[in-house]
Amino acid sequence: MLKDKSISKITKDPSLTDLNKDLYRNESYLSSEKDIISLKKSEENTNNKFDKEQKENTIINQNDRSKAIDNYNINYKIEKFSFNLICKNLFNSSDKKIIKENKKRGRKRNRDDINNNENIDDDKKFHDKFSDDNLRKKCKNIILKYVLEFINKKIKEKYGFNIGHGKFKKELKMLNQDNKVKSTVNCDKIFLNKKLKDIFSENISSRFNNFPKNFNKTLIETLLNDTNEERKQYFINLFDTTFLDCLKYFREDGNKLELNGLKTISEIKEELIYKSGKDYFRAFDYYLQYFEEIINQKKSRKHGEQKSEFISS
């Protein structure tokens, strides 16, 4: 009975499939319980040997992998460590700004020595929109801006708003930056008595790339040679007007007839205050009221002067 149970138990073990076949072929091979136990021990020894080999192979593979990693680190070791590369994604925008501000910018200047030097003028230490040259340029720029608008308005009126289209449109264009205003004292003195005909005959701005550079000059010549005598005479008188005439009319102490309708400082006061503030307007208005005196009191440079960049309004 014990023999039958043992045989039945063995036959159900899937790990002994080959043995099961032999048992069915020859039951006499397992004649006792002792034979069954012996067979199981043999099986366990086989399994243990297999597990041991597997563990040894695993250890060998791990050792090989460790050696490969070590070799990789040796061959591709980091020569330089860049902190910036790591920081790039760690810091936010404000942190980046702080790092940028702390970056060295060359040799540090000794500000105490500069401020204690009595031979250095304030204009040379600080240069902003309140500086003398910038205020003088602003005065000329503002006046020329509104004179240009005024001339184009008069062209429309005189021609009954029939001024053409495109390249044939009778309308003066904005001047080239280089030709508008120069910040030198000598240029300012000459500019005071310069006629509008000469001022606006300079090359136009490069933004009008579909128009010839001398577009304004050609248009002014056309206006001055108009077949209508009344229009012709008006534009002759208008373009003979000097910048000083426009300056006086703009600040409301001139009465040039041809300039009737030109905007004045009182009309644009609020606009200027809104754009630049009250402090700047007071400085601008002072330079506007005493423009000639300020220019005439200036001394020109001995070694020649360079034109500076035009400041747009």
Protein described:
- The structure is a single chain.
- The protein has 313 residues and is an all-alpha fold.
- The chain has 2 domains: 2-75, no CATH class; 131-297, no CATH class.
- It has helices at 2-11, 17-25, 33-75, 83-87, 93-102, 111-116, 122-125, 132-158, 177-180, 185-192, 196-199, 215-224, 229-239, 243-250, 265-276, 278-289, 291-297.
- The chain is elongated and about 140 Å long.
- The protein starts with a helix and ends in a 16-residue tail after the last helix.
- Residues 23-30, 76-101, 111-118 and 303-313 have low confidence and may be disordered.
Q: What's the order of the H and E elements?
A: HHHHHHHHHHHHHHHHH
The description of the largest β-sheet is: none
Strand content: under 5%
Helix and strand composition category:
mainly alpha
Query: What is the count of distinct domains?
Result: 2
Uncertain residue ranges: 23-30, 76-101, 111-118, 303-313
Mean pLDDT: 74
Amino- and carboxy-terminal Cα gap = 117 Å
* Radius of gyration over C-alpha positions, nearest whole angstrom: 48 Å
| Outline type | elongated
How many helices does DSSP assign? 17
**What share of the residues lie within helices?**
55-70%
Number of strands: 0
